[in-house]
Amino acid sequence: MFLRRRNSKLLLTVLLALGAVAVVLAIASRAHSIPEPIMIASRWTLVAAVFGYAFLRRSLMTWIFACMVIGGVFGYDFPHQAVGLQVITQIFLRLIKAIVAPLIFSTLVVGIAGHSDLKQVGRMGLKSIIYFEVITTFALVIGLAAINISKAGVGVQAPADQVRAPLVAQKQTASDLILHVFPENIAKSVSEGQVLQVVVFALIFGLALGMVRESKRRPLLEFFESFSETMFKFTNIVMYLAAPAVGAAIAYTIGQLGVNVLSNLAKLLGTLYVALIAFLLFVLLPVALLARVPIKRFLRAVAEPATIAFATSTSEAALPRAMECMEALGVPRQIVAFVIPTGYSFNLDGSTLYLTLAAVFVAQAANRPLALGEQILLVLTLMLTSKGVAGVPRASLVILMATLGDFNLPVWPVYIILGIDALMDMARTTVNVIGNCLASVVIAKWEGEFEREPPSEVVVEALSQ
Question: Which domains does the chain have, with CATH numbers?
Answer without folding.
Answer: 87-464 (1.10.3860.10)
